[in-house]
Design a protein that fits this description.
312 residues; two-stranded antiparallel sheet; 2 strands; 2% strand
Length: 312
Amino acid sequence: MSLLALSPLRLLASMPGNIAQGIIWGIMAVGVYMTFRLLNFADLTVDGSFTTGGAMAVMGIAVWHWPAWFALLAAFLVGMLTGFVTGILHTALGIPEILAGILTQIALYSINLRIMGGKANQVVSVDKYHLIITMRNIPLAILVGGIICFVIICIMYWFFGTELGSSIRATGCNQHMAMAQGINVSDMKVLTLALSNGLVAMAGGLLSQYQGFADINMGRGSIVIGLAAVIIGETLGEAIFGKKLNFMGHLIFVAIGGIIYYIVIGFVLWLKMPANDLKLFTAIVVAIFLAVPYLRAKSQNSYAKAAKKGAM
């Protein structure tokens, strides 16, 4: 297809929708950031807990007739439970972190089907129920999603400045030193996994309301998208602010990374690339952004060594 056949107006028209979805996935990425960066824990539970949040939100609103905000809170609490299970499998039973996440993720597939009444998908209509966000009103969805995301970031910034939050960060930095300081490392891991998956499930609940349905496969590949948002956001933030980027800045740019990711996805779809290749494209993007910091540090070390040799 010729590039001349592509309409820039169509690309611009799709941007608000991409931004709205990017904000939701940015919330999910903030949850991934907690385990991936703060705890150095590769948690694969999120592919299942994201769907759990969506299923709880839709069933809570459409079947159990809960208010949308209460269904979202229930999604957060159930998401915390999924992270708690992963944490117990890892800390109490000694199962390696990756396998613990995979086991919980596999179990959640059946649990999510049970939550949705044995169906692969469930619908919640904005015409029948009052939803927090919906793609029927994208500007309002961007505003409400942005407010929710900002409030979550502020709460996290406050929490990780407390003694308990500092203990979590210390656990991620150096477990042995944290244990020497009297910190219960196992409890910190379980708590972080619970909070992380709670945010992931909340994002799933928001997405299901936004798109009007929950699907059993809606969380597939969520960890890749979350990692992409984290890496893109951190790389962009460090490129702009360098070492001056504080913890609050990291959280904000991780959320921005989710928005950028979906803008890029919208651009790829605008180019008429096969939708089946989106996962491949995502993996390539994540690999590139993961390699950038390493290659940049390597090149700086090479220049430093060359300069030192030249000075000698």
